[in-house]
């Protein structure tokens, strides 16, 4: 099986798995317990917290959550904002930001969506137009999970703070962490979401960076863990495994990115021969994501056909009968059959150039076969 | 705590079946027992009704839920089985009855050793209940609940007042066998339910168009079969690969006839499956006018390729009514999952609404029908 859907999830690394197991079976104690075993575990979590904070290069705290979705929800719902104030999010946010924003709109906030270019990046001039001194919260994805476009968060954040120094700026870094260099001090953001299972750890853990001075209202109430911001017994195994895989991934960042770049350009050079295929990913985007669309074969059909040949890729999953899935092709301004043709090939550290060779071969023969049927 | 220790089962339509009654009953009893497989219970057959007894009290709710889905049962009552002793029955009646409302008491005395007339016993029990609460009144005709006492010959009485409706219909398996065209949609599972209710054994055929539809679409069909299992135990499912046929139609026939010709293939293949498996009819989920392929003309075109009778239990129903049944039998949530079924991928922009049979036959003649069907059935 050749797995090229690493933007959706990654395979847990052996070392992360070992840590997960050790903190589930040996050091399984409740970190809130008053006895020594509990305190030891608590200490380990604090070390993990500090370690991840260092990797992100931020001044503030880390709140451990159940994953990217919870981190994003906590950022959007938890951030203090005056009733009815303006909230800006981009048109191509992940569902875990997009739908919370929609909900905030229902709750009476003035939520506006910032247009993106054809590669999925926020258009700076459009963004500027939306800024007001009443803007309370902004959320812009760092690396688009759809196209791999990298938003210039530093520039967007600086501009927003120029208009309203009190605006809270959040960025969803789920596809950025461990893939591109991150320095939260330099980006200037107030909150930043990351997820463990995108960087070779187990599912069910994430974190939200919260800059010093930013106060959050909790979404979950209970035992007051995570400084009262996120109650619930800590997912110790998940957190420790995340810490382990995060350090490993960041240490290999440059090396892995070079590999991903190589894999990506190797595919790109081969599929440019199909004139009807549009490359959605920008040239300067994340090396890990190659998104394209065709008007001749539907993405989902390609996905299933490749699946039967032992290759797993992602799709834009646009379905004519499902309005929810139309927002991405709409935001990318795709027309006609191009709306349904989105395929997302995403790489991981475990992929090899041999696999990509095999992929290209299968992609071409499958694509040509299906294209012929479509054209009758 | 509810100490109900027995469930009384009633069946209705079986009475109409005269000489076949023994057969219908034997099937019904077999179905009841198999619905309760894995539970500890005792099945007791009595005059005109059955009893489920000696089950652990904590299984009561689940057993009732399973029994309400057995076709052929009309209603059931959770009951208290006690030794026939009129004083004890009175006490029990007071204990289990609601404390307010209009009620009546009915006694059925099969036990000749009880030295009182049914009417008198009923009056006695009623008086005791009436005295127990000042919010209870007797009304023989316009009552909120009826407390029933069934005094059997064996010295035991069954006391109950709750009546729970069951699925009705005829015992599953007494109506012959038919092949159902099962998509992942809302209608065909309801069709299956409706025909199974008339005792028909359902053998489903599903057309799968990989890679145009995903494994998830196929999973949907398996999940639907699982949901239908309480009504249709062990439903057989034949999955027929359909992509090659669709591709050939797409290549060789006008696009507005795509669906008409596709459905003719589906009907023909379903009939072949039926004949190979001893089924005497086909079942579809068609509802007149719902989509282009369900107009009278379209149905004529698809019906023309088969000789077996085609049952369309939903033909005169509105979508809302169909959805209501789909929700009742719990298939609705599965049916609306957004995986495309094989009809949607090759969907033409303007399918013909009033196709002529002659045209369909002419267009289809370009295809090697038998070879395509043989190959699909071989891979099924």
Q: pLDDT average of chain B, as an integer?
A: 91
* Uncertain ranges of chain B: none
Gyration radius of chain A, in Å: 21 Å
What fraction, in percent, of the residue positions of chain A are helical?
A: 40-55%
Sketch the topology of chain B as an H/E string, one letter per element: EHEEHEHEHEEEEEHEHEHHEHEHHHHH
In the CATH scheme, the class of the largest domain in chain A would be: Alpha Beta
- Per CATH, what is the topology of the largest domain in chain A? Aspartate Aminotransferase, domain 2
At the third CATH level, what is the topology name of the largest domain in chain B?
Rossmann fold
Percent range of helical residues of chain B: 25-40%
Provide the gyration radius of chain B in Å.
Answer: 27 Å
CATH class of the largest domain in chain B: Alpha Beta
Total beta strand runs of chain B? 14
Which H/E pattern describes the elements of chain A?
A: EHHEHEHEHEHEHEEHHEEHEHEH
Intertermini distance of chain A: 31 Å
Helix vs. strand class of chain A: alpha/beta
Strand content of chain A: 5-15%
Offer a few descriptive terms.
heterodimer; A: 376 residues; alpha/beta; Aspartate Aminotransferase, domain 2; Aspartate Aminotransferase, domain 1; seven-stranded mixed beta sheet; five-stranded mixed beta sheet; 12 helices; B: 380 residues; VC0802-like; Rossmann fold; 2 domains; nine-stranded mixed beta sheet; five-stranded parallel beta sheet; 14 helices; elongated
Task: Please give a structural write-up.
The complex is a heterodimer of chains A (376) and B (380). With 376 residues, chain A is of the alpha/beta class. Chain A is built from 12 helices and 12 strands. Chain A has helices at 14-26, 36-56, 68-78, 95-106, 124-130, 153-163, 184-187, 236-251, 253-271, 299-307, 327-331, 353-375; strands at 2-4, 60-65, 86-90, 110-114, 135-139, 168-172, 191-195, 206-211, 278-279, 289-293, 311-315, 343-346. The two termini of chain A are 31 Å apart. The mean pLDDT of chain A is 95. In chain B, strands 1, 2, 3, 4, 5, 6, 7, 8 and 9 form a 9-stranded mixed beta sheet that branches. Chain B is built from 14 helices and 14 strands. Chain B has helices spanning 21-35, 60-67, 86-96, 118-132, 187-196, 215-228, 243-252, 258-276, 296-303, 319-328, 332-335, 342-345, 357-364, 369-378, and strands at residues 6-11, 42-46, 49-53, 73-83, 101-109, 136-138, 145-151, 156-160, 164-165, 177-181, 201-208, 236-241, 281-283, 310-311. Classes of the chains: A alpha/beta (376), B alpha/beta (380). The A-B interface holds A 298, 300-305, 307-308, 319-322, 325, 370, 373, 376 and B 210-215, 247, 250-251, 338, 340, 344-345.
């Amino acid at each position: 099986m050749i797995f090229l859907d690493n933007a959706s999830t990654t395979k847990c690394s052996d070392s992360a798995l070992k840590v997960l197991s050790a903190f589930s079976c040996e050091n399984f104690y409740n970190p809130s317990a008053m006895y020594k075993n509990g305190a030891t575990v608590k200490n380990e979590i604090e070390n993990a917290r500090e370690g991840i904070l260092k990797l992100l290069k931020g001044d503030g705290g880390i709140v451990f959550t159940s994953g990217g979705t919870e981190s994003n929800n906590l950022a959007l719902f938890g951030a203090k904002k005056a009733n009815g104030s303006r909230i800006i999010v981009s048109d191509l946010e992940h569902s875990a930001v997009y739908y919370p924003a929609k909900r905030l709109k229902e709750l009476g906030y003035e939520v506006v969506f910032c247009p993106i270019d054809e590669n999925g990046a926020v258009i700076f001039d459009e963004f500027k137009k939306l800024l007001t001194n009443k803007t309370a919260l902004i959320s812009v994805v760092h690396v688009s999970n759809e196209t791999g476009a990298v938003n210039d968060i530093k520039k967007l954040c600086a501009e927003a703070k120029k208009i309203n120094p009190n605006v809270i700026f959040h960025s969803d870094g789920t596809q950025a962490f461990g893939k591109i260099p991150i320095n939260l001090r330099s980006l200037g953001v107030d909150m930043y979401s990351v997820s463990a299972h995108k960087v070779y750890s187990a599912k069910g853990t994430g974190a939200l960076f919260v800059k010093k001075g930013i106060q959050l209202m909790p979404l979950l109430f209970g035992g007051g863990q995570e400084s009262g911001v996120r109650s619930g017994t800590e997912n110790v195994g998940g957190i420790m495994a995340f810490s382990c895989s995060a350090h490993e991934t960041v240490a290999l960042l440059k090396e892995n990115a070079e590999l991903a770049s190589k894999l990506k350009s190797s595919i790109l050079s081969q599929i440019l021969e199909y004139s009807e295929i549009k490359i959605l990913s920008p040239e300067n985007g994340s090396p890990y994501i190659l998104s394209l669309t065709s008007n001749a074969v539907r993405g989902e059909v390609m996905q299933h056909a490749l699946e039967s040949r032992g290759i797993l890729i992602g799709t834009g999953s646009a379905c004519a009968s499902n309005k929810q899935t139309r927002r991405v092709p709409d935001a990318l301004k795709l027309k006609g059959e191009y709306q349904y043709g989105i395929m997302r090939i995403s790489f991981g550290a475990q992929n090899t150039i041999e696999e990509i060779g095999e992929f290209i071969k299968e992609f071409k023969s499958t694509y040509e076969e299906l294209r012929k049927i479509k054209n009758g | 705590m509810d100490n109900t220790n027995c469930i009384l089962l009633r069946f209705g339509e079986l009475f109409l079946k005269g000489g076949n009654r023994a057969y219908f009953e034997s099937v019904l009893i077999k179905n009841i027992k198999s619905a309760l497989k894995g539970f500890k219970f005792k099945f007791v057959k009595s005059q005109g009704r059955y009893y489920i007894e000696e089950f652990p009290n904590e299984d009561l709710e689940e057993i009732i839920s399973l029994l309400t889905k057995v076709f052929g049962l009309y209603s059931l009552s959770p009951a208290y089985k006690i030794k026939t002793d009129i004083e004890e029955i009175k006490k029990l009646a007071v204990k289990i009855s609601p404390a307010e409302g209009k009620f009546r008491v009915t006694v059925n005395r099969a036990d000749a050793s009880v030295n009182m007339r049914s009417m008198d016993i009923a009056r006695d029990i009623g008086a005791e209940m009436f005295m127990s609460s000042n919010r209870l009144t007797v009304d023989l005709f316009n009552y909120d609940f009826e407390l029933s006492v069934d005094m059997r010959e064996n010295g035991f009485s069954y006391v109950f007042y709750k009546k729970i409706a069951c699925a009705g219909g005829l015992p599953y398996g007494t109506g012959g066998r038919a092949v159902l065209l099962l998509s992942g949609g809302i209608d065909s599972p309801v069709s299956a339910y409706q025909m199974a209710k008339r005792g028909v054994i359902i053998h489903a055929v599903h057309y799968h168009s990989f890679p145009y539809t995903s494994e998830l679409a196929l999973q949907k069909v398996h999940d639907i079969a699982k949901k239908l299992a309480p009504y249709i135990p062990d439903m057989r499912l034949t999955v027929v690969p359909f992509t090659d046929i669709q591709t050939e139609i797409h290549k060789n026939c006008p696009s507005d006839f795509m669906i008409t010709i596709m459905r003719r293939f589906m009907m023909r293949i379903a009939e072949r499956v039926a004949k190979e498996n001893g089924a005497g009819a086909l079942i579809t989920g068609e509802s007149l006018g719902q989509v282009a392929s369900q107009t009278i003309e379209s149905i004529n075109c698809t019906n023309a390729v088969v000789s077996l009778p085609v049952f369309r239990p939903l033909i005169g129903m509105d979508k809302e009514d169909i959805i209501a049944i789909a929700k009742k039998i719990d298939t609705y949530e599965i049916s609306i999952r957004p995986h495309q079924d094989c009809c949607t991928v090759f969907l033409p922009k303007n399918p013909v609404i009033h196709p002529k049979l002659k045209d369909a036959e002419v267009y289809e003649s370009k295809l090697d029908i038998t070879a395509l069907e043989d190959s699909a059935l071989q891979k099924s």
